[in-house]
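Objective 1b of the project was to move from sequence-level analysis to a structural picture of ligand recognition. The entry below was assembled by the postdoctoral researcher (A.K.) and checked by the PI before modelling. It contains the amino acid sequence of the target and the SMILES of the bound compound, zinc ion.
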Amino acid sequence: MQTASCCEFHPPTVCGPAQCPACGTLGKPVKRITLGALLKPEARSRIPLQEEFCFCRMATCEIVYFREGEAPFRKDDLGVRVGLKEPQDPTVPVCYCFGWTPQKIRAEIEATGQSTAIEQIKAQVKASNCYCEVTNPQGSCCLGNVAKAVQEALAATRVKGGERR
Ligand SMILES: [Zn+2]
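Corresponding predicted holo structure:
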């Protein structure tokens, strides 16, 4: 699989092994700036004075950001929809910097038989045009999510076409 990632440009911070208070999933570290950029104005004033928080990536869990000893933030507290938590809606982005949604990926595959999403994103990352810290709710590289969306779209198209390309 493709390994280059924009995390090389935005190295992840170190987060203790904290578990989501609702579902128990191990959180992924996000910086305070990600919460500041994506929470609704009314929720923004509740961000504790900490530099680091955890993101819960479990699709079925309402909690998005948490930190031990602090009140968590839920989906409703964000001004954007979280792609990882809306897998049934193909219009919610998987790549927030460049606007790739499962629907857009699927449309390209249906039209051309393949996806250029990852190449296009990588080219933009190389040109330093990626801002995942302030655009992506998970605060880090989206390429893993995009790769998964491409695979799912390819599989769905094959099933629909009744044959392997
Ligand atoms: Zn959770």
